[in-house]
Specification:
The complex is a heterotrimer of chains A (384), B (104) and C (276).
Chain A lengths: L9 E6 H11 L2 E6 L6 H14 L2 E4 L3 H13 L3 E6 L1 H16 L4 E9 L5 E5 L4 H6 L8 E3 L4 H18 L2 E7 H5 L1 E6 L43 E3 L13 H16 L2 H4 L2 E4 L6 E5 L1 H16 L4 E6 L1 E3 L3 H8 L4 E5 L6 H9 L4 E5 L9 H11 L2
Parallel strand pairs in A: 2-3, 2-4, 4-5, 5-8, 7-8, 12-13, 12-15, 15-16
Antiparallel strand pairs in A: 1-9, 5-6, 7-14, 11-13
Helix pairs in contact in A: 1-2, 1-6, 3-4, 10-13, 11-12
Chain B lengths: L2 H8 L17 E5 L9 H5 L5 E3 L11 E3 L10 H5 L5 E5 H10 L1
Antiparallel strand pairs in B: 1-4, 2-3
Chain C lengths: L25 H15 L6 E5 L7 H4 L3 E4 L5 H11 L4 E7 H7 L1 H10 L3 E7 L2 E2 L5 E2 L23 H8 L3 E6 L3 H13 L3 E7 L6 H4 L5 H11 E3 L16 E8 L5 H14 L3
Parallel strand pairs in C: 1-2, 1-3, 3-4, 4-8, 7-8, 9-10
Antiparallel strand pairs in C: 5-6, 7-10
Helix pairs in contact in C: 1-7, 4-5, 5-6
Classes of the chains: A alpha/beta (384), B alpha+beta (104), C alpha/beta (276).
């Protein structure tokens, strides 16, 4: 085990997927279980090289279902754990993402999105799993999803994802895409002292009084690790504060409301957006991931024509920044939403706008990033 | 009653062993947690000493729990405790009983 | 009256009586499990039980150890994560035939192949009992189940053969009636490093036995009494279970092979130690 190799502080010219792997390592992740799937495999491959250097455990599981379960188990075994996948594997993981949400297990799932549906375009970009990230598993739950737009952000947001997952005891999704994952750019890895890591929220009181699902004020309960003598029972069935299954409407209401409110009531602390020139904008481009970068060129073209265009970039896609969108709706002529799909996040924008203003989707079925001119066209048209 | 005749009551010998008076056949007491029983009869069937039988009384769930038919015959083998799927029956050895008596 | 049973200290007594039917063998196997834990002298704070979904899957909810009731078929990968994250834990997977071998089949063979350090106790009652008695991968040929009302036309798995072929280092099969031998097998399995597998044939009076008119739990236990043959070291290939045929029980495999965690770390140390 080589402590010097833990955090590769410095400036790198690094591939996005590699940056994601380094982000996980910097965040303290020491368990990885995954299944190879293009275009995320480089993350797994890089981790398989790096983990043995620093005492982490890498295991390639037999499928994505096993991978998701293994990271849940490892989290309860005391290690920060992560898996990576793409569209088809993401579909397979849904049931157990639900188990993670129900058992409030901290872990990180990275989806380097590709063109779908089904096998689709394994090596080409898509942003078609955005709604699935929110609603993919059955039942009611809330999840946190981050959208990096660059290799640097793949590093930063992976660290952020681990922090959020420990803070809110929920699986956190990093919704990358093939372009961001496969591009190489300048990535600055800060020194260890400058990387803020949030610790696991562990219980430290008397053993007899421990209730595994009794929430703190912010609706998040305190966790323990298997093997510490607490004799916890963790189940996917609807359960009470002791963790025992209680199958009635009252317990369901109490538990599920808390799981949902845990994120909703803390949304203001979780949501992160990047705004540029939105205060007096006529049109605002709402985007995320690689499409946000493509939009920058479109915005440049619009500004050259004298249009006042702002940009609202979603760093957290889920929970969605409903309040801010609603606020801006009364100030602008319209929102332009470019995304590499046939319309997903645009519906959230429409919902929050509540008819107060125009919303135009700039779709793209996948396989390539947008032509900035198409986004520019949409900005022009919305003003007519 | 002498030790050897107690022993004869609990063990069926086909010839009397030479050290019959030195061999102590263990003895135990069967305790039944009646309200846990679901009347499956495993204990009744598999007790090697025929200590138990299903009673006619009903427990809280409407099952017939067993009762100790032949107190003297129990040799503390522990099979009833092990076979019961409901954790409704167990045995205590003579020694443990004596300890408990001493402790008052 | 709140009487205490000597095994209550390892049970979540606030949840007893459990949900298993009268005459079901799962409870007896859990008795043996608790006895085996006592006899093996394991640190009970380090024993973790992982179950899936089904009647046997409920075992996790009744034992007073760190226990995890996971999704259908996924007990083994969850347990793999636990075992590899903390190799000091004694991980026991306690689940049923449908959960472990049908939906969980893929995970089962891979965990055995890798020789992950865990003990898998599979209670085989030949159907999906909890959900009403549907046929499963171990339902014997021609047996009736709720989804095979005319009889089952699928050849079942021979679990001990499957486990042995996949690389398990300890493979045993007992019926729920072989209490003391089952307990002893469990003790041996706990002390074994690597993937150990114990199949427990159990009565299922409410589903399997009822549909096939096999009587109640006691009748099935009597059948096991009269029809099980103990053959230690037998070739697992020859231990098929047909409908109401002889059942070969015993310890089939007991070999040594380094478990995954140990093997991985030793291997990496060798390869990386040579590099500068």
């Amino acid at each position: 085990m080589n402590k010097d190799r833990e955090i590769l502080t410095g400036e790198h010219f690094m591939n996005g997927n590699f940056a994601c792997a380094e982000g996980a390592i910097a965040a303290g992740c020491r368990f990885f279980a995954g299944y190879p799937i293009t275009p995320s495999s480089e993350i797994a491959e890089h981790i398989s090289v790096r983990f043995p250097e620093i005492g982490g455990l890498f295991v390639q599981m037999e499928d994505e279902l096993a991978s998701m379960c293994a990271i849940l188990g490892a989290s309860w075994g005391g290690l920060k754990s992560m898996t990576v996948t793409s569209g088809p594997g993401f579909s397979l993981m849904q049931e157990n993402i639900g188990l993670g949400a129900m058992t409030e297990t901290p872990c990180v799932v990275v989806n380097i999105q590709r063109g779908g549906p089904s096998t689709g375009l394994p090596t080409l970009v898509g942003q078609q799993d955005m709604m699935q990230a929110r609603w993919g598993s059955h039942g009611d739950y809330e999840i946190i999803a981050l959208c990096p737009s660059s290799p640097q952000e793949l590093f930063d947001f992976t660290v952020k994802a681990f922090n959020l997952s420990e803070m809110y005891r929920v699986p956190v999704l990093v919704m990358g895409d093939e372009v961001v994952g496969h591009m190489s750019e300048r990535v600055v890895i800060p020194p260890k002292e400058e990387i803020e890591l949030l610790p696991r929220r562990k219980y430290a009181g008397p053993k007899e009084k421990y209730l595994p699902f009794k929430p703190d004020k912010d609706l998040v309960p305190r966790m323990v690790t298997a093997g510490e003598g607490y004799h916890i029972h963790i189940t996917g069935l609807t359960h009470d504060e002791k963790g025992y299954p209680v199958l009635d409407a009252e317990t369901q209401n109490k538990l599920v409301s808390r799981l949902v409110n845990k994120i909703r009531k803390n949304a203001d602390k979780i949501i992160e957006i990047e705004e540029k020139n939105t205060e007096d904008a006529e049109v605002i481009v709402v985007s995320y991931g690689i499409s946000a970068r493509t939009s920058l060129r479109a915005i440049e073209l619009a500004e050259e024509e004298g249009i006042k265009v702002g940009m609202l970039r979603l760093i957290t896609v889920w929970p969605f920044p409903e309040k801010r969108i609603h606020q801006l709706a009364s100030k602008v002529v319209g929102f332009v939403v470019p995304e590499i799909n046939c319309g997903q996040i645009v519906y959230e924008v429409e919902r929050c706008v509540r008819g107060k203003t125009k919303v135009t989707l700039v779709p793209h079925a996948g396989g390539h990033i947008h032509d900035p001119k198409d986004i520019f066209q949409a900005i022009r048209s919305i003003l007519k | 009653m002498s030790v050897s005749s107690l022993g004869e009551k609990r063990m069926k010998y086909w010839r009397k062993p030479l050290d019959a008076d030195k061999v102590k056949v263990p003895h135990g007491e069967v305790r039944i947690i009646k309200d846990r029983c679901k009347g499956c009869s495993f204990c009744v069937e598999y007790c090697p000493r025929d200590v138990l039988e299903l009673s006619d009384e009903f427990n809280i769930k409407g099952y017939h729990p067993p009762y100790v038919k032949d107190e003297e015959a129990c040799v503390n083998c522990g099979l009833c405790e092990l076979v019961c799927p409901e954790f409704a029956i167990y045995n205590i050895s003579e020694e443990e009983l004596e300890e408990k008596d001493e402790q008052g | 009256m709140n009487e205490k049973h000597p095994m209550d200290y390892l049970l979540r007594e606030d949840r007893i009586p459990h949900i298993w039917c009268p005459g079901c063998g799962i409870g007896s196997s859990v008795s043996c499990f608790i006895m085996a834990l006592e006899e093996s002298g394991l640190d009970l704070n380090k024993v973790v039980v992982v179950s899936g979904i089904g009647c046997t899957g409920r075992v996790a909810g009744y034992v007073k150890l760190d226990s995890f009731h996971t999704t259908h078929g996924r007990a083994i990968p969850f347990a793999t994560g636990l075992a590899l994250a903390n190799p000091e834990l004694k991980v026991v997977v306690y689940s049923g035939d449908g959960d472990l071998i049908a939906i969980g089949g893929n995970h089962f063979i891979h965990a055995a192949r890798r020789n992950i350090n865990m003990t898998v106790i599979c209670v085989n009652n030949f159907n999906y009992a909890m959900t009403g008695g549907q046929a499963g991968p171990t339902t014997p040929l021609y047996a009736k189940a709720s989804t095979t009302p005319y009889g089952c036309f699928e050849q079942p798995f021979n679990l001990v053969h499957l486990a042995a072929a996949s690389g398990a280092v300890y493979v045993a099969r007992w019926t729920a009636l072989h209490l003391r031998r089952l307990t002893k097998s469990m003790v041996e399995a706990f002390q074994k490093k690597g993937f150990s597998f114990i199949e427990v044939i159990s009565p299922c009076p409410t589903a399997y036995a009822r549909r096939n008119r096999l009587g109640d739990g006691l009748a099935q236990m009597k059948f096991y009494h009269d029809n099980s043959i103990i053959r230690h070291g037998a070739d697992p290939k020859e231990a098929d279970i047909g409908f109401q045929t002889k059942i070969v029980v015993g310890k089939f495999i007991d070999v040594e092979r380094p478990d995954y965690y140990t093997f991985l770390n030793e291997g990496l140390a060798k390869v990386m130690g040579g590099r500068k």
